[in-house]
Amino acid sequence: MTDASIDPGLFRQALAGFPSGVTVVTTLGDDGRMVGFTASAFSSLSLDPPLVLVCPALTSSTYPHLVRRQRFAIHILAAGQQAIAMAFASKGTDKVAALDWRESELGNPILPGAACVIECTLWRDYEGGDHAIVVGAVQRIDHADRSVLLYHRGAMADHPPIAEAA
After folding, report:
1. What's the pLDDT tens digit per position in 96-111?
2. CA Rg, the chain, in Å?
3. Residue 107 near residue 28, CB atoms below 8 Å
4. Regarding the domain delimited by 8-44+61-117+140-158, which CATH topology (the fold level of the hierarchy) does it fall under?
5. In a 3-state reduction of DSSP, which class is residue 81?
6. Which residue, 122, 143, 139, is CA-closest to 76?
7. What is the reported pTM?
């Protein structure tokens, strides 16, 4: 149900003004190949227990695999990984076939070079309009000290390193 008083273009423009990190969510498909999507709708949710949320479109070809497998990896992309973000943002079944990845000990496809990888099991799954709200229980974190990729006003840019406080 859409509120006719809210112009979709204006709504999209307003939300584009909020900078966010760029994440890629991966899981394995039924055939054992990596599937995934690019998501800017990602957030921490809880410290106790450690929970995060990510919001795939209901039309995402990855979403059913994520629900069936009950586990996934969220990659916070590092500066310079725009090509990876664009590959996962595209449509099609072979969109990421040429990308390098390895399977983690927890059974998730892991991409090299991310600033952080958060591996999760599916904790809850809710409806959220034309998207799902997927809550992941954090099982493992692999954090690297790298600059990150940001998305703002329809464009991606590398975030410069921030100097440590003295």
Report:
1. 888 999 999 999 999 9
2. 16
3. yes
4. Pnp Oxidase; Chain A (2.30.110)
5. coil
6. 143
7. 0.89
